[in-house]
Automatic annotation (TrEMBL):
Region of interest (Disordered), residue spans: 80-101
Record's protein name: Mid1-interacting protein 1
KW Transferase (keyword) present: no
Keyword Nuclease (UniProt): no
Classification via InterPro entries: Lipogen_MT_Stabilize_sf, Spot_14
Domain of life the protein comes from: Eukaryota
Biased composition (Basic and acidic residues): 80-95
Listed Gene3D superfamilies: 6.10.140.1610
Organism: Eleutherodactylus coqui
Length: 153
């Protein structure tokens, strides 16, 4: 699977979820040794903004970002796990008064735009993390001494 870039033509929630799921699936399939991420710093040309004391997603290293992205994907797939021991079932809501339901469309549009924005950023971060890992593995393979059958030890 190839890491694909965000396509701005489609702004549907389902497409954004699919892109995030695909990016994190590729990330998971590519990163065979996640602990290697602890020693990798993204190249400056790959960063959208300079990384200060914390890197992707506000995490201390790429490994923490990897774990967070996997956790978010799991939450999207299976629902949010509540720490306090309650079930993952729907939260019962009180009946909203008439004046509160009048702006449901505006609330929906606001949250939809927010979800699209967050999913797009998470997808880019998953792609960046995957690409950083691939480059590190390629560099490691280039520095490794090739095995030659002509040498006897």
């Amino acid at each position: 699977m190839e890491v694909s870039e965000y396509s701005p033509e489609r702004h549907s929630l389902l497409d954004a979820i699919h892109r995030f799921n695909t990016a994190t699936t590729i990330m998971d399939e590519t990163i065979m040794v996640p602990s290697m991420l602890q020693d990798i710093t993204p190249a400056k040309e790959e960063q959208e903004e300079p990384i200060k004391s914390k890197d992707l997603l506000g995490q201390n290293n790429l490994y923490d970002s990897y774990l967070l992205l996997k956790s978010l994907k799991n939450d999207m797939k299976w629902g949010v796990h509540r720490e306090n021991g309650k079930t993952d079932g729907p939260v019962p809501e009180k009946d909203a008064p008439e004046e509160e339901t009048g702006d449901l469309v505006d609330q929906f549009q606001h949250h939809l735009r927010g979800l699209l924005s967050v999913l797009t950023k998470l997808t880019k971060k998953a792609n960046l993390l995957t690409n950083c890992y691939k480059k590190e593995v390629e560099i490691g393979n280039a520095n490794a001494r090739p095995f030659s059958s002509n040498h006897y030890y």
